[in-house]
Amino acid sequence: MRKPSEVVLGVIDTEKSQRGLEQLGEYTFRVAREASRGEIASAVEVLFGVNVKRVRTCVMHGEWRRRGKSQRKLGNWKKARVRLQNQHRIEGLFEAPMPSS
Q1: Residue 22 maps to a domain
Q2: Are the CB atoms for 8 and 43 separated by under 8 Å?
Q3: Domain harbouring 54, CATH code
Q4: 43 vs 50: CA distance, rounded Å
Q5: Residue 1: pLDDT over 80
Q6: Per-residue b or e along 37-53, where b marks 16 or more CB atoms closer than 10 Å to that residue's CB
Q7: Structural domain includes residue 59
Q8: I want to staple 4 with a disulfide (CB 3.0 to 4.6 A). Which of 13, 43, 49, 56 is the partner?
């Protein structure tokens, strides 16, 4: 069994993911490519101390990047949309840290 920090790689903060959070209460994470739905659910529960209701996953195909004549394809990655039980929220997930002066 992998550590929860190896399963959940980061939070996806886009306009579409914010809409999903506001309308459906779904959080969007970048996860390990070989992680299963059960592993993702238990990792989110351990990391954030919430109860998970449902996990949806999809593999995002890598994009082509070009610089001059050469081009390369970025690797595929996996995205998970996690819906929490009622009255469960992850506080402070999208708040940016204050810059130090």
Answers
A1: yes
A2: yes
A3: 3.30.70.330
A4: 10
A5: no
A6: eebbbbbbbeebebebe
A7: yes
A8: 43
The percent of the chain in helix, strand and coil, each rounded to the nearest 5, is 25, 35, 40
Mean per-residue pLDDT, 20-26 = 86
Rounded to 5 degrees, φ, ψ at 93 are: -75, -40
Residue 90 domain-assigned? no
Give the number of domains in the chain: 1
Residue 39: beta bridge partners?
Answer: none
**Residues 39-96: pLDDT tens digits?**
999 999 999 999 999 999 999 999 999 999 999 999 999 999 999 988 888 877 766 5
What whole-number distance in Å separates Cα of residue 80 and Cα of residue 10?
10
Structural domain of 16 = 4-65+72-84
